[in-house]
Amino acid sequence: MSSNIDYSTYSLEELKQARAAIDDSEHPERAQELEERITQLELPENSSTEAPSTGASSTVSTASVLRKGKVSFHGKASEFFSIWIVNLLLTIVTLGIYSAWAKVRTNRYFYGNTEIDGHRFSYLANPLQILKGRIIAVCLFASYFILSAISPIAGAFMVLALMLFTPFMIVLGQRFSMRMTGYRNVRFKFNGGFGDAFVVFVVLPFVSLFTMYLMLPWALKKIDEYLVDNSAFGDSSFTTKLSTGSYYLASLGAVGIVVAVFLVGASIMGLGFTSLIHTLENGAPLVMIALFAMYLIAFAISSSFYTALIRNHIYENSEIPNVAHFNSNVGILPLVWLRTTNVIAIVLSLGFAIPWAKIRSAYFFANVTEVSVLSGIDSVTSVNTGSVGATAEEAATLFDVDVALG
Using 50, 70 and 90 to split pLDDT, how confident is the model at 299? Predict the structure, then answer.
């Protein structure tokens, strides 16, 4: 009689414990299965020569796959709603001061409810760290606003200065965010340099202007490579090898969707290009409303198309060598449905559906993300990442210069 227990999710130590507890005479099949699995994990070189054929797994690893499974999210809309409404009310009452505590409570809830391989993430930031950075960021914003009101030229110079300072905010913000993220009692870290950040975040996008944005997809690829390759889990660094062609495919597809939506919309309205321009000059309300609706539809579909393709590509071609492989399977239509229904629910509920939408999104992205845990996971050690402040991260958020991989 064969075993009904699935040992494929067991670690090496768990397999040994299970083997020690089994009576060979009563359960010989289980004992044999356990011995085979233990032998396989104790000799990882036997499986290291079999490299999977797609994605990041194309890199041959010296570690064997221990377990493979989807990311799990355990949050509930009702639980998070109580956190969200208290955060909102206290932030209003304290004129924004409590927003630092609100951010920490929110991140701790989402991190603490995200699980990979039986372990959950932790958010380690202190609210005072966030508050200090937020105060400085607000002072910077106020200075820009005042200068712009007094002298437009001075305001323009400050905008230029902030643009040049953006790479520093991104780097320091990434360092802070990664250092405040823990998993299995090991912190993440970010090793990106300021010089490289200036090139990928300022120079390449600026140069793409002179190529009529034809170089922009390549620039976006370099940005994602910079963010992934400079991230690390303890002493183990992430690696990625992205395809320029995938970025051009995603970008051209997104642009094509926008053009197609407007052409179809104009055809439905029975307007040619000349008549459309004439109608717009006369300011026809119905046409303006129709165009705005087409814009929303085009944005929802094209942005979801780009996000799905690029997220899947990044995850499938990124790994922590000997520690973990990643996979993403975001569908375009499911993502369009998720975003559209979230927006509709938030608008119709006057914002009270925001917690539900955030929980729903977290479940969606967790369910389409898969992680293969390798035998090298137990050898990862924590490293000293130094002291990193929250100022840059808060300034980046306030000035809408947030950077994320999805």
Answer: very high
* DSSP secondary structure letter of residue 376: G
d(CA 346, CA 342): 6
Written as one string, the DSSP assignment of 132-188 is HHHHHHHHHHHHHHHHHHH-HHHHHHHHHHHHHHHHHHHHHHHHHHHHTEEETTEEE
Kindly tell me the sign of the dihedral angle through the C-alpha atoms of 203, 206, 209, 213. positive
Q: Give residue 146's pLDDT.
A: 87
Q: What is the predicted pLDDT for the residue at 11?
A: 65
Q: How far is CA 99 from the centre of its chain?
A: 22
Contact 81, 356 (CB under 8 A): yes
DSSP letter string, 184-230: TTEEEEE---HHHHHIIIIIHHHHHHTTTTTTHHHHHHHHHHHHHHT
Q: What is the mean pLDDT of residues 234-254?
A: 96
Q: Output b/e per residue, 173-203; b: 16+ Cβ within 10 A.
A: bbbbbbbbbbbbebbbbbebeeeebbbbbee
Question: What is the DSSP pairing of strand 324-328 with strand 186-190?
Answer: unpaired
Q: Model-level pTM greater than 0.70?
A: yes
